[in-house]
Amino acid sequence: MGTLQYLLIFIGSLGLLILASKYFTEAAERIGLSLKLSPFMVGEVIVAVGTSLPELVSGIIASTAATRKSYSAMFWERTFPIFS
Question: What are the domain boundaries of the chain?
């Protein structure tokens, strides 16, 4: 692949990321309003969990494929930043 193709993929990926983040924040706001949560709680809980879940899933996949790391240790490593 040439440099131009990589540049187009990068620009397209960046555009999709911006679009997805817009929908994610709007959805988090709607969830928070329906649960009658304050905006602070929406930002701290819903968004924190939503952004940490991909790391948790990728950690589980990596641990089952490559190493025999304890699931509980991996779970607490991935979720501790949510509570800090």
Answer: 3-83
